[in-house]
Automatic annotation (TrEMBL), chains A, B:
Highest taxon in the source lineage: Bacteria
Alphabetical list of SUPFAM superfamilies matching this protein: Homeodomain-like (SSF46689)
The keyword Transcription belongs to this UniProt entry's keyword annotation: yes
InterPro entries per the UniProt record, alphabetical: DesT_TetR_C, Homeodomain-like_sf, HTH-type_TetR-like_transc_reg, HTH_TetR
Coiled coil: none
Domain HTH tetR-type: 16-76
Keywords: DNA-binding, Transcription, Transcription regulation
Pfam family, one: TetR_N
DNA-binding region: 39-58
Protein's name according to its UniProt entry: TetR/AcrR family transcriptional regulator
């Protein structure tokens, strides 16, 4: 039985709807398998459409689909940081982390493959997408911290923490999501504050920020 | 003028010497350019030998040479942790960091390309090599800490710190090696201790370790 016959594939979707349907199908496959183990046939089957249709939307084939799926995941990740610039700052960070960890949980293996690279379709372009998310996260956090003109030491501290959060997420997935997500989130926030406190010993701007964060709560 | 004519290339070297000469040449090229921008011709020229000779040693071409250079760099990185298991523990970590940062300084762009991936010759095999160094670093640190049977929270803390150190090294290279290496090293050690202190609030094993480290100095 061909997938087309078994699913309501050819109902009329707008181009945008169809595209996003295919990306969702691809993302859910990448969530469980490494990108090199996913074929366009698999995507067609998961979306319940024909292979030529997948090619029509992604004429560049697997590489193009992978990049589009990556971009779509990157957009979703960026949305984790959509948070009003008001109220105490560390709870804002906690809420962003909750959304981020929900994303990690939802995309599991696909998230790991994405961050760890090592895929045959990995290129400098895909690396740039992942790196763009990291940079966006750093800018978001710095803007939420409300520091005007963050200096190199503060920036380095924030960027180190972001990398450490990624590493922790990968380990967390490896270890069957232990500790529980709430504990992981609180621990990550505490790691953030501790990192700032160390930097504060050498950097007046960070010292001022740490004082503000303590008063903020 | 061909490179062969200009250099004492064809003096007799043992197979091992020749191999290591070619790897050194490759590493120094990778140190200044991304792997995809280095050709076998470049390596032959840098080593002052003919291109066929490079092929004789690395019949798999560029991919094989890149992996061999990566392995050689990985071995060098592992040696950073060669440190007697005696004396106070944090100073041992400082000395390992000094060697690691000297490696980062020496290999510059090659080190960045290596860690950041995004190379066309990046494969799951090269990723595994880099990941192997990270794991070895974690095991070394845990063994130096002298904790019998380190639990998941302590392991996660150490692995997060290793990733954070990598991120800091890349930023440090980007920022013309600011702050000075001694300051960076001390700051990284302090970040390590601060990370352990946060984990100690939830983990008895890490709490005990933090107490020991404080008494150690």
């Amino acid at each position: 039985m061909t997938p087309q016959a078994s699913t309501p594939a050819y109902r009329r979707l707008s181009v945008e709807e169809r595209r996003s349907q295919l990306l969702d199908a691809a993302l859910s496959l990448f969530a469980h398998r490494a990108p090199e183990e996913v074929s366009l046939d698999d995507v067609a089957e998961a979306a319940g459409v024909s292979r030529p249709l997948v090619y029509r939307y992604f004429p560049g084939g697997k590489q193009q689909l992978y990049e589009a799926a990556l971009r779509s995941a990157a957009d979703e990740l960026r949305h984790c940081f959509d948070e009003p610039h008001e109220g105490p700052r560390l709870p804002r960070l906690s809420r962003a982390l909750d959304r981020y960890l929900a994303f990690v949980d939802q995309h599991g293996a696909g998230f790991s493959a994405l961050l760890q690279g090592g895929s045959v379709v990995e290129t400098s372009r895909t690396t740039a997408i992942v790196d763009g998310v990291r940079r966006a996260a750093a800018e978001h956090i710095l803007s939420h911290l409300g520091v005007a003109g963050p200096g190199p030491r503060l920036r380095m501290t924030v960027r180190m923490w972001i990398t450490a959060v990624e590493a922790a997420s990968l380990i967390w997935l490896d270890e069957d999501e232990q500790p529980p997500v709430d504990e992981l989130r609180d621990w990550l926030v505490e790691q953030f504050v501790a990192g700032l406190e160390v930097t504060a010993r050498r950097d007046a701007q960070t010292e001022e920020l740490v004082r503000e964060l303590a008063a903020d709560l």
